[in-house]
Amino acid sequence: MEVFFNGEPAKLVGGNRTMLQVIIPVVPFPEAKASIKLGMADYQVIGKEEICIKDKWLMVSNDAPDNFVNYTGSFVIGSKAYFLLLKDAPEQNELMVFETKTLNWESKQLEVPLLATSNVTGSSEKGYLYTQSENNNFWEYDPNIDLWTKRKKFPGKNRDFSVMFSVGKYIFLGLGNDQNTPWEPNFSDFYRYDPIQDDWEEMEDLDFGPSSPKLKMACTVVGDKIILSGGGSFGVWMYDSTKNSWDRKNDFPMALSFTSGFSFNDQGFVTLGRQVWKYNFQDDSWTEVDEVGFSYRYRSFAFTIEGKAYIGGGDAIPPTIWGNPTRNVYRYDRPSF
Asked: Does domain 57-332 have CATH number 2.120.10.80?
């Protein structure tokens, strides 16, 4: 006896004359539906109706053209998500594009310098890259002409694991540390970039005080508020872009690094592994919500497009193995809140 869901074989684990027990294949079900076909010897039976897949997070793609692990982040323009992929040689670096309307992928050579501790963000029309160099360290990407353009140099010192996000027309960049001197205090300076004027303005500092370097903090942008968390510590800070002010918030449940933040339904989220936490603005607390997929993943991407949240890529972490890059993407279809 064989059982297929949308043509993919399921694992038969038990049954009797009236029932079969199977494990549904871990494959994309972008429409949250599946047709069932039974096969036995030369006979086949096709179900009259499709069944509904009720996963909270629904796999919508598993055929990315390359492994995509989050070193630098991603940015969104329109219905597309853009990922900058660091390879062993600079000429192999990629810009990978995921079109959420068709679930199709495109890959092209990345024409600008990229480091493991670079950072990216996007506005409504352009993408922006900060990469540590003495001269050409800030770039703007125009998807309409597929062109990277050098913009005015970032005014602060070169830094690793910077914090970078966009609010409205502005790009914010700063903080971070110097990985060449690992126990150097974290940078506290913070800047705002105006793409129209091609100019930088220094904003309110955020002094972390005496602490170890922050490693890849998560930025969660909700309206004009930004929730900053992770980096290997429990600390959480909120930036109000209308007031240009930082406030310390209650601690995160765990000290994590290389987390990813995203907003969804005007709420803020952070993810790592299979876990997802929602920030509660009313009482300044965190609640763990719906888990993602079946593999724990490290350095994954998280982004929101047209009211839908997505998590994908990264290194899947089986219990005894590190470094198993994944090529799948999950969409948040049935949140429990």
From this structure: yes
